[in-house]
Amino acid sequence: PSTASELTDFGVRHVGKGVSRLTNGVMASAKGSYVTFEDGRKMLDFTTGIGVTGLGHCHPKVSQAAADQCLTLVHGQCSVAFSTPYLRLIERLMPVMPDPSLDTFMFLNSGSEATEAALKLARHATGRQNVIVMQGGYHGRTYGAVAMSKSKTIYSEGFLPLMPGVFSTAFPYWHQLGLPPNASEEVLVQQSLIQLEHLLQQQTAPTDTAAIIVEPVLGEGGYVPAPKAFLEGLRAVCDKHGIILIFDEVQSGFGRTGKYFSCEYSGVRPDVMVMAKGLANGFPLSGIVSRKELMDKQKPGTMGGTYCGNPVALAAARACADVMAEEKILENVNARSKELFTFLDKLRQDPKYSSVIVDVRGRGLMVAAEFAAPTYPAHDPAANASAPKGIAARLTARCVDKGLLLLATSIFQTVRFIPPLNISQEDLAKGMKIFEEALAEVVH
Ligand code: PMP
Description:
- The protein is an alpha/beta fold.
- The chain folds into two domains: 4-55 and 328-442, Aspartate Aminotransferase, domain 1, CATH 3.90.1150; 62-326, Aspartate Aminotransferase, domain 2 (3-Layer(aba) Sandwich).
- The chain has helices at residues 4-14, 48-51, 60-70, 84-93, 111-126, 143-147, 174-177, 185-202, 228-241, 292-295, 311-326, 329-349, 381-386, 391-401, 425-442; strands at residues 27-31, 34-37, 42-45, 104-108, 130-134, 166-169, 209-214, 217-218, 224-225, 244-248, 272-275, 286-290, 357-363, 366-371, 404-405, 407-409, 414-417.
- Helix 4 (84-93) packs parallel to helix 11.
- The longest helix is centred in the C-terminal third of the chain and has 21 residues, at 329-349.
- 4'-deoxy-4'-aminopyridoxal-5'-phosphate binds next to helix 5.
């Protein structure tokens, strides 16, 4: 293949069908907030590769740190010895942890691996088996992680049996509770906590329950921030019963929501926190962190893997932490966030769209606009398959045609905005303009 379209045809023929794509274009290079395709198109990136390249593509300081590390130590196998970048990253991350009790780390390669590692830690530490997950939660596609994911059946359909011992309970998102979009936060929290209480009484006894895992901002399931009272409720249940509370900050961490970690909005401390994505701005790196006493219970050799804690990714992550501080990334997130919310709230109030946009929500630059779905997602496969082709999919497709990479979430008609955390005011405005034009074309 030589031309851009020949490359696309080659990809369509030879890349496994199980991987889906927003577009069949071929990314050739990327810099900052833009991705350049083989056909010459330069696209503004409001996906950041699903919330990963928060510091922009190929941030010079991060790429330089990785390049330097490539010439110093590439494979510092974690079961052979410590490596300098491993320890230097821990040193750099400790001060930004949401609670000083989170002082013991372990690095892995992907979010899925890390959520499974967190569960292994909880099962081993408690001697219990079951895990409670949230309806709409997403923790990855490997077997254990997919068992804990409840955002779409496509991840599990045809892959059964999954890991046993997983119980799900409502996240305080109106869809999960069969409530209207204007349901009050108080009712949502109360109903969710009642469901959890019933689950512990009817299906998984506290003494069999190792962990509760929750995204403090529900990600793939709809970009819904967990109210403070809900996380406080979970903390209280976990404290009462000796259950490990795991926060999955894979998508919501590292400044995405305007604080270093989104759980800081609640002040609730997890026992274990899962990190990935923004941690290394595109280099495959994830991690778990907990208090020392939990990790110290593990037997040496039970965790890890050939590539876990790759020095190049670790060096990049350390540079990311430097950039976060040097470039005052959180300040930019909060300034741009206000502009994005103002824009979306205005659209929502516009009589042309007020019956179409049912919700605007999120935190920082993890923001969603939810559209009215013509029908509630049905249980029959044919209707389910066509549901995502609703307004959100049409809208994101129009945006792509117009030069803006934008994604939808899960089964509901929700479009998510995850631009770079250091996006300029001009580029954010440019993306919002494209979105507004696409919306006008899709909603008549
Ligand atoms: N947890 C959350 C909250 C996520 O958003 C994701 C990925 N979207 C994962 C876990 C899985 O991460 P990975 O794709 O790196 O396995």
